[in-house]
Amino acid sequence: MTAAPVIAVRKLTVTFTAGRHVIEAVREVDFEVGDGEVFGLVGESGSGKSTVLRALTGLHEDWRGHLDILGEAQGRRRSKAFHRHVQMVFQDPYSSLHPRHTIDRILAEPLAIHGIPNAAERIEKALVDVGLDRSYRFRFPHQLSGGQRQRVAIARAIILEPRILLLDEPTSALDVSVQAEILNLLSRLKKERGLTMMLVSHNLAVVAHMGDRLAVMRRGEIVERLEVERLRRGEADHPYTRQLLIAAKGYDRQLADTLLE
Amino acid sequence: MTEPLLSIANLRVDFHTETGVVRAVRGVSLDIGRGERVGIVGESGSGKSMTGRAILRLIRPPGVMTAERLAFDGIDLMALPEPAMRHLRGRRIAMVLQDPKYSLNPVMTVGKQLIEAFRTADPALSAKAARTKALDALTAVRIRDAERVFEAYPGALSGGMGQRVMIAMMVALGPDLLIADEPTSALDVTVQMQVLAILDDLVRAQGMGLMFISHDLDLVASFCDRIAVMYAGHVVEECQADALQSARHPYTRGLLAAIPEIDRPRGDLPVLERNPAWAEDSS
Question: Which of A181, A203, A250 is closest, CB to CB, to B222?
């Protein structure tokens, strides 16, 4: 990383309030993402990995610490320009697309919000960019398969030509053969557009496939930060990362026994 | 040669809908032996769950099931009257589903549900004996604080704990065959390991046959003895689990190639090109 990081997070703590209880879902997390880098955030459910992403994109407001994105310190509310540069893709393409809007309307909305002209042309281009035929434009989400819907969600994210793509488990709801297609699509978009990406996933292999560096989260904290190349060589330092590495390869009786103790 | 615990030949499940017949299972043939762990893998819509349900004869209209043979421990399940079939379900053939959240009654404590299940299976069982049996069952799936879990409502349990409760309920009756439909897919990897270890022990200790339905090829290959790969409602390939990497069918090979792996070189993942011929009936 030579240039200034595109995302710089310092001492980020994210809280949820339930009645009188305040839960710290993320505690004092630090990381940086360089321009054009793919940064993975790995962990099990409840580790806080998605919460980090939601705080970054402004979907969750109860946080403290420092968030610098594209050189600007971020506050509670994000500017319109911020959302033009930072877009998100969610896990479940069944619930992240409006069921009663056509693909055309789904893709037209971000353009209308940002007052971008030539909607029809851009929509067709976005569809082609994500590998969908123009004929999908006037269909409804229920007429599409899971993989096609995720392509629409990606089209919606890239139609504003953002610089940063935040991906929250983008392939976990998909079959492996469809996952491969979506990962290839994301790799291609990254290459063509020089996108910076944050990829949240419970799947180490997906992060190892896509990412440059990663952080492993557990119970709201980052337990280890490492280069993907080191992960691929099995050189993780933290015992938890090593457990995840073994578990990612399938059933392992020895590991299971230590976990049951 | 001893007879397999479960023997299926040419099992079919058709759904008659307004727009035509949907053929969900199209001629599955499969045997499962005692103490054998057989993995059924395939992508969504391949018919693997329907196959599991059909063994328990849980296909509801408009679904219609037929089979040349569906024999469990020498019993012809196709010819079995419904009351006898009901007697078999839970006692001799049990099923664990993916998400304990939907399998357990949310407004009844875990203990009450276990007792209800055990006393339904054995009406002669006293309330006290059922309680002891329930606590033993929870301990058997390595729940340390069995008393607390016994008193808890399902909502207070984690996913892994809920799944252990489900397994405790199913295996306490000592079934000969357990059909586990994606039993660990909703769980974190480390919790998944624990649940699998428990199933592993039960298979070894009780000689239970296990039908393990999953979309996760690596998991099935490392956990099961034998694998059947399903595509478009039928088994396209069967092999020993440790020989999965040398699978021959282009569909299996395509699936294996599409999985990103930590120590595999990067670059684009090979995309599965589906051949319409794979969907054609084998029989």
Answer: A250
